[in-house]
Every structure is written in C-alpha cells, then in structure tokens.
Design a protein that fits this description.
Shape of chain A: globular
Strand content of chain A: 5-15%
Number of helices of chain A: 4
Strand content of chain B: 5-15%
Structural class of chain A: alpha+beta
Oligomer: heterodimer
Largest interface: A-B, 25 and 28 residues
Helix content of chain A: 55-70%
Number of strands of chain B: 24
Number of strands of chain A: 3
Shape of chain B: globular
Distance between the termini of chain A: 38 Å
Radius of gyration of chain A: 16 Å
Strand order of the largest sheet of chain A: 1-3-2
Radius of gyration of chain B: 38 Å
Structural class of chain B: alpha+beta
Chain lengths: ~110, ~900
C-alpha cells in the first residue's frame, strides 16, 4: 500500500492516539490493532505509521521507550503524554462533530 | 501553546538535531523489529521463509522512503531556517560595514547607558534591604505642623514599647559617639546607644556574645558594649577572647558583651544622622536616666518590627489612638503630636527614588531615539534593498519568511549592540558609583549582576523588535511587480515608507528636545544653587570635632576647656580666627527648642515659639564668616557671672519682631522666670539655611559658651586660615593634645568639602542628564543627516535635471534644506510641548527655576534648530554637486 490519500493524516493520528491510550504499544502492535479492530477494513499502510509516530513524538503528544516484549525482544513502545491525552480528547470531540455532520448530510441526501 | 509545552517541543527538536545518528539507528532497529514480527506471522500462516519475508516487506512499504519521511517529520525547519537567516543577516551586515557600525554603536551607547542606570536602580531600589524580612521594619517618628519627623522622648518611647500591639518589637537608638583610648592614639568612633533588643528588630544577632537586654537599660548597671566586626579586627586583632574583656571608652571602663557579624548595616538615622550602611562601630546600652515626668527632650529615634500582616498605616493609627489615650491619662502629654510610621525601605531610599526614576526615564528616551534612528536607517536600507527582497519573494519566500529574515537582521544588530552595551555599562557603573554623592544610600550594593544582564537581554530583544518591525513589515508589503519593474532607481521609494521615516524623525527630534530642556533646566537650577549666597564663607575654613567624656569633665571644666582651646588657637600662627560651636552649617541639623517665653509677646499656638538652638564661642561667627547684622558678637565677658545673653538670626528677628529692633529684647527658657532668668538678645546675625537648597532659613538662636545651660561634650571647632585649611590640622591636634592627650580630633574636613558634598546630588543629576541630552542631540543629528542625505541620494537624478534645466545651486540647496528643516521644526515644536507637559516630573528636582522657564526653552530651540540645520546643510550641499551632464547621459 502506498500513501493512503483517502486516509487523511489527522485520522491516522487520531487512531494512533486512541490505540495507545489503553497502554503502551510498539509500532507493529499499533498497526495490528488498527487492522484487527477495524476488521481489516482499514489496512494502514504499515509504513505510513512510522512517520506519523515520529511526528506525534515531535509534537510531544507521545513518548517512546525501549522495552522488552512478552517474548523477550527489544521493541520501541509508545505511550501517551499528558498533552497527548488532551489532544486525543480534542480530536475525538472533533471527530464526533465531523462524523455527525457527515451523517446528517448523507441522510439529508436520502430524504430528497 | 503553554510555555511548558513550547519548551517540551523545543527540547525534542533540539534532541533530534543533536542526536541525529542515534535517532536514525533507532528507526532502523524499530523497522527491523516490525519486519521480523510480520515475518513470524506470515510463517505461522504457512508461508515459506522467502515468501514470508517478501510479503512482510510489501506490507511495510519501502524502507528508505519511510526513513526519509520520518526525517521530514522530525525536520527542525524553524531552527534550520533560523541558522540560514542568521548567516544571511551576517552577510548583509558585513556588506555595508559603515551602516552596521553606526547602528550598532549608537545602540550600544544607548543600551549601555540604560544598563548602567538600571544597575543603580537595581542596587538601590529593587534589592531588598539587608535585613531578614525587611518589609516589616518601620521607623517611628512624631510629627506636628512644624516638625515633619521628630524623635521621641525616652520615657514616651518606653510607654509606647509597653503598650503598642502592632509591633513585634520596638527599639530606640540615639547617636552617642565614643573615644577609644588606652591602646595607642586616641580615636573617635561612631557609636549608638540602643535599647534592649535593638538588633532583634533588625533581625540581626551578634556573631559572638549577646545583645543588650532590659537589665542593660538600668542606669548604674555595669556598662557593656557591642563592637563592629571591623573594630574588633582592626583594634583588637580579632581577639578570640574578646568577650568579657574590659576596654576604656571615653575614659570609662566597658565590658565587651558581643561582636556583630561583618555585614551589619546601620539603618540610617536623621538626628545627628549617620548614613545607612556599615557606618557604625560601637553600640552601647541606652539607660533611662532622669525623671520620667520630665518629658520635654526628644532625642530617641525609634525603629520597630511590625507583626506579620500589620501594615505601617495600621500601626500608625494604633499609635495615634494611644497618644490620645496618654493625653487623657496625663493632661498635656504629647499635645499637638501625631504618630508617623514609615517603612524603613522608604525612609532609606525614598528621597532618592524620584531622582533615579527621572534618570531612568531620561536614559530610556535616549534608547527610544536610538531605536528611531536604527529604524530609520533600516527603512532607508530596506528601500534600497527592495529589488533583492522582491527577487526573494518571487523565488517563493513567503511574507512570514521575509519578516522573519528582516527581524533576524535587526535582532542581530540589537544583540551586538547589547553586547557592546554591556561593556560600556561595566565601565559606566564603576564611574557612576565613584561619582555618586557621598551620602547616597546603598551605593555599595550597586553591581552589574544577573538582574542587569537579564534587563539588558530584554532590552536587546525589545529594541530589536521595536526598530526592526516597521522595516520588516514594510519590506514584506512591498509590491513585487512594481519593485521588480522599477529596478530600484528613480522614485523616492514608497510614499508610505517616506511618511513613516519622517514621523520617526520628528519623534526623535522632539524627544531630544525634551531631554535638552530637562538638562538646561537642571543646569539653570544648579547655577542658581551655586550663586546663592550661603550666608557664610566656606573657603580657607577647617572644621573638626572634639568631644569631652562626660565622666571626666564636669560642666564647669568643659567651659574652661573650650575657652582655653579657643584662646590658644586664636593666638597660634597662621590662624585668623578660631571658634567653637555646637554646629556647622550644612551638616544636617534639627535640634529645636520650643515653648520659650518672649517678653511682652503671646504665642499664637502651642508650637509658635521655637528655634534651632546652638552654643557658640565669641569668635565662632567671625571664623565661620557669618556676618553680624545688628548689635554685637559674644565676648569673653559673657560668662557665668555676667547677665545671660543670646544671639539670634535674621529669620528669628523678622519672625518675632517684624517691625522692631530685636537687640535688647528678652527671652526666657523658664516657665516662671525670675528676673535673672531672662536672656537679653545682644546681636542679630545673618541667616544660614539648613541645606543650600532649603527653601528658607529656620529661626535660630545661640547661647554663649561661657553661660551655656546645657552640658556640651561634643563641639565643632572652626579655624579660618589664609590658605589651604588642611595645613591648620596639625596646629589643632597639637593644641588639643597639649590640653588633654586622651582626646581625639575627629572629622577633620575643610568647609569647602562640606559645601561641595551638599551640591553633589544636583551636580550628579545634572551631569548625567546633560550627558544623556548630548547623546540624544547627537543621535537626532545623525538621524536627520541620515534621512536627508538618503533623500538626496534618491533624488540625485532629479536635482541633476533641475540644474540642467537652469536651476541655481542655491535653489536646489533650499529645496533640500526646506524639506529637512520642516521636519526638524515640527520635532522641536512637539518637543517643547512635551517638555511643558512633563514639568511635574522635574519640578521637585529644581531650585528656583520655573519648569516653563522661557529663557531655557528659547535657548534649547535655538540649539536644536542650529544642529538640525547643520545636519541638513551637509547633504544639501552635496545635492548641488549633482552633475547635470552625468544625469542627462544616464537617462
């Protein structure tokens, strides 16, 4: 998969933030989680994940640390910072608004 | 964005800048981990190893692309851009060195002057006083219609101490100098008598030993003494067993009870004042002697520590209520007096606060002018660089980038200026402190420190933005199309830019005028001060002080001692006149006597009859040079056997005998005088004001030394010679030693020095304000010159055409001069109006000059206009040199 033009950047950020809000995860686990939970509908280009992670880290919304996985391998785990949690709340609210608005428009189209 | 978050982001960016390699390595490791995980999953799904690897790579996408994208995400665009801007700015400044030098130098001067003045303000006004919790320390005075700040009677003080609730502790102190003899040359030390817990009020404690307690206040208890660290080191060789040691002060035995730590600072006092600082060497207990019902004499100064949360005004209200209460208990007690509680900080620095803020204001104006100048020069250059900026814009630089680029340049200039300014300030502060008036409070705390550095850094930032913003916005707004086509020649470059530059110039000239007027008013005031007749003759006059220990000298002995000393001095070679008196002119004085009787007159109020009182020997007035107006001076015959006499000054004569001859009138200091209690006025002498800038002289009277009703242990000796008075010091020392070898001769100073110290504050202010005003004038001249010569440069072509078409050089010159002078005149007019509006700022610093002094305003206008004309003339002359042939050829 190449750069997902339909998957706008902000949405990817939101999904990443939401995914690690439950607890620290490494990149591969994040990708698997997004694919799994969306029942494989959202097949994130796995590669697109990493620039997004770096950007979020530069913004100070997430932080990374090297830890051992259950299988004893070294992996880079990402977790939310305080600022990241606030950002997630903001983006969630915005998403709710947006999807409600889109839903309204789509249903209005039905009514006509 | 909160500052905290901003900081976090900055930190992360810096980290990725600094640890680029490590970040790259980590990314690689992370991606490898990802791939291996995916491969495992693929293997588990039944692929063979080769397939599994290929599928995983496909799933992930191209690794180098991901790495590049990650790099993009981390890209420190701001920081990298800043680096580029900085390099570009350095190149641009290097390309026009003379422009750079002028701007940086003027800014450095202005910023340096600001930093230097700020360091004085920081040391004197902003730094807390050197006492723990100093905000709670307050001075306590009495206050009446005639006496703004009056000391307390000791017994009144004791009542206040027992009954006031607002104070955690209250202590009294009064000057009581001592002579240390026994070990070598007798020496005079500044000393204070203090009540129990005095140091506790200040929040200080002895480094060794104990401080005084109430036991020490009881007369007759063994005298103890606390020494300053300096005295302990210098005179007692830091003796570790000093406590309990017996020392002889004023020919009496004292036991050393304590030594204060080195940084003990005297809080300053008014009555026989000693300045704030490490000025006191000995403290000894104040004992409550005498009859508690006789409360007429007021000489105890009071200081207190307020309870936490209590304000000075509340304490004052409580004390006023207590005064009223005490008046009910003992009718007549403290009648006419009110309480005055002043925070110590205000008492110490209050009088100089205004001066310092005026100086900061003046130097701030200089900085504004320097900024206007810099903005003007940058604007001119921005116009010249229009083409370059347009090219950059055409190549895709956004407006934001252009503004940032220009601001980087101006901030670079202001930072360079601030850096040099710091050097100037370092030298300036040392000069300032050396030049400060001797009695300036807290001079020793003035240093360049972190606060001054921070102030300078803020100034660099503020000035950089202030003078850089206008040119930056101007550049960003410029019309790309127009600029490129026009090719940077011909027109005078944007009407709006021109207007802005003209406005800056007018503002600059007006600010310089305000400063010039301030300086001129101060100069006039200073000249007035010097020209005012002091009322005595300070030249060729030596002053000194000698004190007689009260335990050794009975009142009769003191009179004999002073008589003998005066007599022997008067017969010594080289001495024209020698006198002895309680006081010297202009050294601070506030001993008043009130409530006396004047024969045949009734006082109009409880405090109506009052005067400064002094004691003088027969030749005192002749020696000091105070003229006799009527009657006679004292003579040797005015002794204890003769009828009591006194001398008064002209003020007192005018006050109580406005249309009569005061000589021959009688005054008594006894409530129910017998015939022998009346003192006859035998002479009227000229007025001497308390200070040269006091509005008028106070009433004053003198008793003859041979008839003095009070014990006078400490006296000033005045000796008039024919030349340098310092040469007389040895004769004085010799005579004193001959009479009593245990006595010290202290405070030997020519009267000229005292007179000089009295005008040192206005001279200090005058010097600085003149310096700033000249700087301002110079900057404004540079500004005018810069703007006019730039305009001439832009219009060379036009002038060439005019000359080619037959205009006379004079016409062209007039054209340029007119343009520049119009701006200068507007600036001067604005400046005069501004100075009038600011009169209240200066008023209290001036002496006998109106803040709207017409002569000053006229002179300043003439000076400013002439300088402006000169600054316009030079470029105007250049305009006439435009070569018509050259112009026509280039067309």
């Amino acid at each position: 998969m190449s750069k997902p033009s339909d998957l706008i950047q902000g949405t990817l950020d939101l999904m990443i933030l939401r995914t690690i809000s439950a607890g620290p995860k490494h990149g591969w686990a994040i990708a698997r989680h997004i694919e799994g939970v969306s029942q494989e509908v959202l097949q994130v280009t796995q590669g697109a994940l990493y620039p997004a992670l770096h950007r979020l880290e530069q913004q100070g919304w997430i932080r990374a640390a090297w830890r051992k996985t259950e299988t004893g391998r070294e992996a880079k785990f990402y977790e939310l910072t305080k600022a990241g949690r606030a950002q997630l709340d903001r983006e969630l609210a915005q998403w709710e608004r947006l999807s409600r608005a889109v839903g309204l428009v789509v249903r209005m189209g039905d009514a006509q | 964005m909160t500052p905290r978050r901003g900081w976090d982001i900055l930190r992360l960016r810096l980290r990725s800048l600094a640890r680029r390699q490590r970040v790259e390595d980590e990314l690689e490791k992370e991606l490898r981990f990802h791939l291996e995980q995916q491969i495992e999953v693929n293997l588990a799904a039944g692929m063979n190893p080769g397939e599994a690897r290929l599928a995983a790579l496909r799933r992930l996408g191209g690794v180098p692309q991901i790495q590049e994208e990650c790099r993009d995400m981390r890209r420190n665009a701001h920081i990298e851009n800043f680096g580029r801007d900085l390099r570009y700015a350095l190149r641009a400044l290097g390309a026009s060195p003379s422009f750079t030098v002028v701007i940086v130098l003027t800014l450095a001067l202005a910023i340096g002057a600001n930093s230097a003045i700020f360091s004085v303000i920081d040391g004197v006004l902003l730094r807390p006083l050197p006492y723990p919790d100093a905000g709670r320390i307050a001075r306590v005075f009495l206050h009446s219609a005639d006496y703004p700040k009056f000391p307390l009677n000791p017994f009144d003080f004791r009542d206040f101490r027992d009954r006031l609730q607002s104070f955690e502790s209250l202590a009294g102190f009064t000057r009581g100098d001592l002579q240390l003899s026994g070990t070598g040359q007798p020496e005079h030390f500044t000393a204070f008598q203090v009540t129990a817990g005095y140091f506790g009020v200040l929040g200080l404690g002895p480094a060794r030993g104990r401080e005084f307690n109430r036991n020490d206040e009881i007369p007759g208890n063994g005298q103890s003494v606390i020494l300053s660290d300096r005295l302990w080191r210098d005179r007692f060789a830091s003796d570790p067993h000093i406590l309990g040691r017996k020392i002889t002060l004023d020919s009496q035995p004292f036991i050393v009870a304590g030594v204060m730590p080195p940084d003990t600072e005297h809080p300053g006092n008014a009555y026989h004042g000693v300045a704030h600082g490490q000025t006191v060497d000995i403290w000894w207990p104040f004992a409550f002697r005498g009859d508690p019902n006789q409360r007429g004499s007021h000489y105890l100064e009071v200081i207190g520590r307020l309870k936490p949360g209590v304000r000075a005004a509340q304490a004052q209200a409580e004390m006023n209520a207590l005064i009223a209460q005490m008046g009910r208990e003992r009718p007549g007690a403290l009648e006419g007096w009110h309480a005055l509680v002043v925070p110590l900080y205000r008492e110490i620095v209050g009088p100089r606060q205004r001066l310092l803020w005026v100086l900061l204001g003046a130097v701030g104006l200089v900085l504004l002018i320097a900024c206007a100048n810099a903005a003007n020069l940058l604007l001119a250059r921005a116009t010249a660089r229009r083409r370059e900026i347009a090219v950059r814009a055409a190549l895709g630089a956004g407006r934001g980038r252009l503004v940032r680029q220009m601001l980087t340049e101006s901030l670079l200039i202001s930072t360079l200026g601030a850096g040099m300014g710091m050097l100037i300030a370092a030298a300036g502060v040392r000069a300032l402190v050396a030049f400060l008036p001797a009695d300036f409070p807290r001079a020793e705390t003035i240093h360049l420190n972190a606060a001054v550095l921070a102030f300078t850094a803020c100034m660099a930032l503020a000035t950089g933005i202030l003078f850089g913003l206008a040119p930056a916005l101007q550049a960003a707004r410029s019309d790309l199309h127009h600029s490129l086509r026009e090719g940077g020649r011909g027109s005078t470059g944007g009407l709006r830019a021109l207007r802005l530059r003209q406005a800056l110039l007018v503002g600059e000239v007006s600010l310089a005028c305000i400063l010039l007027i301030g300086a001129a008013l101060m100069l006039r005031s200073f000249v007035n001060l010097l020209r005012t007749d002091p009322g005595f003759r300070p030249e060729h006059l030596l002053t000194a002080s000698v004190s007689l220990p009260p335990r050794v000298y009975k009142p009769k002995d003191t009179v004999r001692f002073w008589d003998t000393l005066a007599e022997s001095l008067n017969s010594a070679a080289g001495i024209r006149a020698a006198g002895i008196g309680t006081d010297l002119p202009w050294t601070g004085y506030d001993d008043n006597i009130g409530g006396f009787l004047i024969e045949g007159k009734k006082p109009t109020g409880p405090e109506d009859f009052h005067a400064r009182y002094h004691v003088a020997s027969p030749d005192y007035f002749r020696a000091v040079g105070i003229p006799l107006v009527r009657g006679r001076f004292f003579t040797a015959g005015d002794n204890i056997k003769a009828p009591p006499v006194m001398i008064i000054n002209q003020s007192m004569a005018r006050h109580y005998w406005p249309n009569e001859d005061a000589v021959g009138k009688r005054v008594s200091f006894d409530d129910h005088p017998k015939e022998s209690d009346w003192m006859r006025i035998v002479g009227v002498v000229g007025d001497v004001k308390d200070r040269p800038d006091s509005p008028e002289a106070q009433n004053a009277l003198w008793w003859a030394i041979g008839q003095t009703p009070v014990f006078v242990g400490q006296m000033s000796v005045v000796i008039r010679g024919a030349s340098d008075p310092r040469l007389l010091a040895n004769a004085l020392r010799r005579e004193v030693r001959r009479l009593d070898p245990s006595l010290a001769v202290a405070d030997i100073r020519p009267m000229d020095d005292i007179a000089d110290a009295n005008v040192s504050t206005p001279r200090f202010a005058l010097f600085l304000v003149s310096l700033f005003a000249s700087l301002a004038l110079l900057l404004a001249a540079i500004g005018i010159y810069g703007v006019v010569s730039y305009a001439v440069g832009q219009r060379t072509h036009e002038f060439g055409l005019r000359l080619a078409l037959g205009a006379q050089p004079g016409d062209v010159r007039r054209l340029v001069l007119n343009q520049g002078m119009k701006l200068a005149l507007a600036g001067v007019a604005l400046g005069l109006a501004g100075a009038l509006a600011l009169e209240r700022v200066l008023w209290s610093l001036l002496y006998q000059v109106s803040t709207a002094d017409p002569l000053t305003f006229a002179t300043v206008s003439v000076i400013a206009i002439s300088i402006a004309a000169l600054a316009c003339y030079l470029p105007a002359r250049r305009a006439t040199l435009a070569d018509p042939a050259h112009t026509l050829r280039s067309e």
